[in-house]
Amino acid sequence: MTLKTGDEFEGSLRELKLQVYMFGEKVDNVVDNPILRPSLNSMKATYELAQMPEHADLMTAVSPYTGQRVNRFTHVHQGAEDLVNKVRMQRLLGQWTASCFQRCVGLDAINAVFSTTWELDQAKGTSYHQNFLKYLTYIQENDLVVDGAMTDPKGDRGLPPSKQADPDLYLRVVERRPDGIVVRGAKAHQTGATNSHEMIVMPTINMTEADADWAVAFSIPMDAPGVYMIVGRQSCDTRKLEGSPMDTGNPVFGGMEALIVFDDVFVPNDRIFLNGEYEFAGMLVERFAGYHRQSYGGCKTGVADVLIGATALAADYNGVPRASHIKDKIIEMVHLNETLWACGLAASYEGQPTASGNYLVNLMLANVCKQNVTRFPYEIVRLASDIAGGLMVTAPSEKDFRDPKLGPIVDKYLKGVAAVSTENRLKIFRLIECMSLGTAAVGYQTESMHGAGSPQAQRIMIGRFANLEAKKALAKKIARIAD
Ligand code: SF4
Ligand code: FE
Question: Three-state DSSP class for 445?
Fold first, then answer.
């Protein structure tokens, strides 16, 4: 089955033996858990849209490795057009779910590991790329979700892995056997962990010879022995348990993150993609981060399309759509969002082939894209809050609204324009609340800041690619300065 349906995807998750903990308890049925279910629905959308003829071009591609049409989330980019289609697909899914749909990390890991293993093998005579091609074929033929696991807990940020007081604060090899390796450590903030079949684990920073045991990349099933995860809390998450869908703002879709723990996990040789070749850790990190920084020019713009729409509806329902300052603020939101989109597209169109043949985004533009993503969503949320007004955080609950005695009072006094029901007005406020302060704020705000690397990580890359000497030469030429 090369393309799974949404229901087949859901069924395949039920068969996994994931070790998941949340609120201090083991979650036996991850698929139907009301806190986690919205994140599964978002991931499921990556399968459902791939089945829709009108979205097939964006959501699928023909794999040169299997000869079959595969989900684009498992595809190796064959040209700049694939990079462009990737961000178009992400914007579409952002609009569809108004949340993080989680599957991009695996796509970005696949493409980064593809080119890095090829170059590593050329330099060292290893056979990691063959390992990876075998794994890629398995993923594509079974249409699996791959979690891209990069971020180590990192402990003391001023120290490299080998100097940490606790060596497990970066994931590392603790044993080398003839048939494979044993790894120990953890990966933090793992997007989509409970909705993934597999994960590709990568190092998180550049490394030196002393860090060779930490320079490791491999794949592992999510339910491999020794792997367990602790789900991260989200603001307002327990509203999903209250039986009041209106209060959640986005009743169907969501995202999730978890701390994944590797408690002496065995990885067989044919699933290893880097094992001590510390010189290649930086290349893998830089490429994965580059792809994921491009990704944000797609997904975040799609999510913001929903927030901008909700804000414009709030203005309508409040009776102020024609106020000039409201119109101007909405134009500013659109302008900021389309600027992010332009960056995502530019990084894609300027993509170039790697030595292995797959396409890499323009790293300068991808880093500029993500740097803007660390800022603009915050301004977009500020403007949404300005326009929506205080009710987005002070409105009574759905239970009050449904109450026979209180409901009519809430209905009467929280009415906006006469033509719109109070219920619809409250739904829009809750959606804006959810995206600004609630469960979806994880994906739209803090993830915009720190996902795919915190702001300073992009500034370092922008500085590296800035080529100031060339710019100085331009200035000297114009000013007629001869050294
Ligand atoms: Fe995809 Fe965006 Fe979520 Fe990253 S944050 S996994 S790019 S939807
Ligand atoms: Fe992310």
Answer: helix
Confirm if 244 and 398 have CB atoms less than 8 A apart: yes
> Helices 324-349 and 281-318, interaxial angle, to 10°?
160
Q: Is 74 within a domain?
A: yes
Task: Give the position, in ligand 1's atom list, of the atom nearest the Cα of 99.
Answer: 8
Domain end (from 274, 293, 319): 274
**Secondary structure of the chain: what % helix, strand, coil (to 5)?**
55, 15, 30
390: three-class secondary structure by DSSP = coil
Residues 6+ apart with CB under 8 A from 470: none
**Structure-block tokens of residue 162:** 């080998």
Q: Is 236 left (phi over 0), alpha (psi -120 to 50) or beta?
A: left
Structural domain includes residue 481: no
* Domain ranges, residue 80: 6-274
Identify the pLDDT of residue 244. 97
pLDDT at 1: 57
pLDDT of residue 2: 87
Is the pLDDT score of 423 beyond 80? Answer: yes
* Residues framing ligand 1 (Cβ under 6 A): 100-102, 104-105, 191, 295-296, 299, 443, 447, 451
Pocket test for ligand 1, best of 99, 105, 194, 348 (most atoms within 8 A of CB): 105
**Alpha-carbon torsion, ordered 179, 184, 185, 191, to 10 deg:** 40
- Count of helices and strands (H, E) across the chain: 19, 14
Residue 89 lies in a domain: yes
**236 catalytically annotated:** no
Evaluate whether residue 479 is within a structural domain.
no
Q: How far, in whole angstroms, is CA 117 from its chain's centroid? A: 23
105 C-alpha to ligand 2 centroid (Å): 7
Residue 99 C-alpha to ligand 1 middle, in angstroms? 9
Whether 166 has a pLDDT exceeding 70, the answer reads yes
Q: Going by DSSP bridges, is the β-strand pair 198-201/146-149 parallel, antiparallel, or unpaired? A: parallel
Average pLDDT score over residue span 251-269: 98
The pLDDT of residue 150 is 97
Q: Collapsing DSSP states into helix, strand and coil, what is residue 253?
A: coil
Q: How far, rounded to the nearest angstrom, does the alpha carbon of residue 127 sit from its chain's CA centroid?
A: 30
Considering the candidates 292, 398, 434, 439, report the single residue annotated as catalytic. Answer: 292
103-123 pLDDT, tens digit each: 999 999 999 999 999 999 999
CA pair distance 322, 462, nearest whole angstrom: 41
Active site residue 343: no
**Judging by DSSP bridges, how do beta strands 172-177 and 180-191 pair with one another?**
antiparallel
